[in-house]
Every structure is written in C-alpha cells, then in structure tokens.
Amino acid sequence: MMKVRLRLGDTNSLKKILRKAHLRTVCEESRCPNIGECFKSSTATFMILGKVCTRNCAFCNIKRGKSGFYDPQEPRRILQTAKLLGLKYVVITSVSRDDLKDMGASVFAECVRLLKEEGIKVEVLVPDFKGKWEHLERILREGPEVLNHNLETVKRLYPKVRRGAHYKRSLELLKVSKEINPRVLTKSALILGFGESLKEVFKTLEDLKEVGCDLITVGQYYQPSLKHYPVKKYYSQEEFKEIEKFAKGLGFKGVVVGPNVRSSYKAYEVYIKNL
Question: pTM for the whole thing?
Fold first, then answer.
C-alpha cells in the first residue's frame, strides 16, 4: 500500500505523525484488533469530523454525545499526511454527525476531491445520512473507488445493537449508491457475536448481494468494556470458513472473513483484485 515505510518498528511512529497533523484514525478510536499490524506497515483509516459520535451503537468504543467539531482544513491535512507517507490508497471514515446540516458529506467530498487530484485512490466508509441521499450523491460525484457502509449486524438485532440506525435504510444506501454511480464499488461489513444465528448471517449476506453489494468483510465482535454490548458467541475458524464459502458462492467480488477482520482490513488489496 505504501511507497515508503516508516523506519521505527512500533506504532508510535505513525501516531506521532498523525498527532502532529491533528488527525485521528478509526483504528485507535475503535480499538481495532489489527492496529499493530496496520500501523507497523504505515497503514491507517483516517477518521474525519471529530471523535464524538451523535449515534449510540451498543458495540462501538467511539465517544458519544454532541460534538460541535468542524475544521474546514481537515481534508487538506489528510492530503498532506497521505503524501508524506506515500499512500496510494486512502480510507476515509467518520463518526456520525447528525448535528451538521449536510451530516458531513461536504467534508467527505472535499477529501475525495483533493486526494484524487493527486492520483491517490479513495475508499469512503460513510454513515447512513438518515436516508437523505442527496448527501450520498454529493460524495459519489467526486468518484471514490469504493463506497462502504457497514450493515454491522442482522436485522433482528438492529434495535439493540445499532440504536438510531435502520436495517432497511442501510441496505437502501448501498442500492442507491449503485444507481447514482454504478462504476463505484460498494462494500459492507458484518461483525458476529451479538447473538445472531448462522441462518440470519446467511440471510443478511443474501440481502447485501440483492442490493448489488460488491465487497464484504466479516469478523468477530470483541467487547470493548463491561459497559458495551456483551459477546454472546465466539465463532470458530470452521464457522468462519463456512461463512466465507457461502459468501463466495453468492458471487461477491471480494470476500474477507476471519476473527480479526474489520471493514477496512486489507482494503487496498481487496480493491486491487477487482480492477
């Protein structure tokens, strides 16, 4: 993914660069299990629009509440940092910002525009914009390579796990994305262990395929603290292999499945395979 690698052998090297640029990564904020692997290879997913989310998902480690944060220079700092690190492919995500008029869509769009002007490919991992698809269209007009929106869990568990989100609305976002710009690959992710059945997982994968989703990642949920939603089940390697086989059988263009897999894990590699 990189033209160059940082010489220091631990995660502190990349963290120092990010702090100096006043940037955040979802890798740190969400306590991603792959943070060591990714940081040691100078890989990160930039998280824009602050570190406080206006939603209240039961599984997420990101802070919740009112943010008020807005920095019009953030996209330019991301560009400068991406160039410093020699990135060929950048993933941009955000907290949900229901408090902003356009829910942050213009900042996403500016990030994509600036990065693509420098020849850097971009994947965006977006919130649901409460179904206001004009915000989604604003981002897609800039032509990101991948539009990602995570379903996270099965339909039955949405009221408990993804409070404030809606299963049907998330599926519709992926469907509408294809209608707006069919050239942009669509992607989603599931986290397992909330109490879903294997049958429900398979049905969710079928629903994603039905709305034209191209790429899928599936991983295990790890409870960030005792205050978060409890882990109901740890999946075995055999079960993950069964899920992977089922997903590939549905015809997804890219499938990444495993305990520590997260939405942006090996994002560049998955994209390259679909060129």
Answer: 0.86
Number of C-alpha atoms within 13 angstroms, CB side, residue 101? 1
pLDDT digits (tens, 9 = 90+) for 213-255: 999 999 999 998 899 999 999 999 999 999 999 999 999 999 9
Q: Is 44 helix (H, G, I), strand (E, B) or coil?
A: coil
- Strand order across the beta sheet in which 24-25 lies: 24-25, 45-48, 89-94, 121-125, 146-148, 185-192, 215-220, 254-257
Pairing mode of beta strands 24-25, 45-48: antiparallel
Alpha carbon 199 to chain centroid distance? Answer: 24
Query: Which segments of the chain does DSSP mark as H helices, in order?
Result: 12-20, 26-29, 35-40, 74-85, 105-117, 133-140, 158-161, 167-180, 198-210, 237-250, 267-273
Q: From residue 194, give the alpha-carbon distance in Å to each of 11, 31, 191, 201.
A: 30, 18, 8, 11
Do residues 17 and 57 lie in contact, with contact meaning Cβ atoms separated by under 8 Å?
no
Query: Residue 82, CB half-sphere, CA atoms under 13 Å: how many?
Result: 27
Bridge partners (DSSP) listed for residue 47: 24, 93
Tokens 């992977």: give the residue.
244
What torsion, rounded to 10 degrees, do the Cα atoms 93, 95, 98, 102 define? -30
Going along the chain from its start, the domains and CATH numbers come out as: 12-273 (3.20.20.70)
